[in-house]
Amino acid sequence: MSGGYAPSPPSSLPSQSSPSGNEGAMRVLTRPVTFVTGNAKKLEEVRAILGNSIPFQSLRLDLPELQGEPEEISKGKARLAATEVNGPVLVEDTCLCFNALNGLPGPYMYVLGTSTVTSLKWFLEKIGHEGLNNLLMAYEDKSAYAACVFSLALGPNTDPLTFVGKTMGKIVPARGPKDFGWDPIFQPNGYELTYAEMPKEEKNKISHRSKALALVKSHFAATGYHFQINGSS
Ligand SMILES: O=c1[nH]cnc2c1ncn2[C@@H]1O[C@H](COP(=O)(O)OP(=O)(O)O)[C@@H](O)[C@H]1O
Ligand SMILES: [Mg+2]
Asked: Quick one: where's region Disordered (predicted)?
């Protein structure tokens, strides 16, 4: 979170237990949902998209990512985060998938020597925007999609729920500010601008992240979670 994290007693667990995803069942949450990420740009977007829709705080922590399918990686992170925070958490993973390469770079993890790295992050750091474009040089098909998986765990030992958002587009030579990942090389379908060239509000309306967060918001609206934080309701 922006201002330090104070662990709280297990009372932060949902006071009524019903199976995860049981829409309509009332749950009382005594802590805001903590979005756990090590990525400041993601946090900026999540904050802008969620606004005041869900009581929300953030915790800066790079969680290990276990190998597997995107939803399993995400659920594993949510379990770790919920144990760490001892309360409700939201975690997020993003992948950029090239259709010509059957979904690579994707979200997958590789073990390189003694270190384990996320392929996409690693690809970006090692070969940059130009290198990512070059991966597609031999292919006519430059289409790609950005996907985001959010996992929500209401507390330790609860089964996380996942929410997926996807935006289709294509890979282009870098254009626009270079302050967030692969934004300069992803041009969403229907736009002449890359994510990086678009005003932030525009990206946040159509992005993979905003689509996944729209599902998170609907989930909160449909389930009737009740936040009782510091005596307030
Ligand atoms: O919306 C986005 N636009 C551009 N780059 C992104 C976006 N979301 C994530 N990335 C980048 O994709 C890479 C992999 O994402 P990942 O979800 O593993 O990030 P993280 O582990 O740093 O939180 C990182 O380099 C990250 O900066
Ligand atoms: Mg990651």
From this structure: 1-24
Backbone angles phi, psi at 121, to 5 degrees: -60, -45
pLDDT tens-place string over residues 134-179: 999 999 999 999 999 999 999 998 999 999 999 999 999 999 999 9
Determine whether the shortest distance from the Cβ of 118 to ligand 1 is under 6 A. Answer: yes
ipTM of the complex: 0.95
In the chain, % of residues over pLDDT 90: 61
Q: Which is the closest atom of ligand 1 to the Cα of 183?
A: 4
Q: Is 180 in the pocket of ligand 1 (CB under 6 A)?
A: yes
pTM of the prediction? 0.84
Percent of the chain having pLDDT more than 70?
A: 81
What's the CA-to-centroid distance between 13 and ligand 1, angstroms?
30
Instruction: Tell which residue, 48, 23, 21, 47, has the closest CA to residue 34.
Output: 47
- Provide the token pair at 120: 């996409």
Taking the CA of 120 as reference, the closest ligand is: 1
| CB of 181 shorter than 6 A to ligand 1 | yes
Per the prediction, the chain carries an average pLDDT of 84
Ligand 1 atom 23: residue of nearest CA? 39
Which secondary structure element, helix H or strand E, spans residue 214, and what is its range? helix 208-223
Q: How far is the CA of 98 from the centre of ligand 1 (A)?
A: 15
Q: Which atom of ligand 1 is nearest to the CA of 208?
A: 1
- How far from chain centre, in Å, is Cα 14? 23
Continuous H helices in 20-153: 40-50, 70-85, 119-134
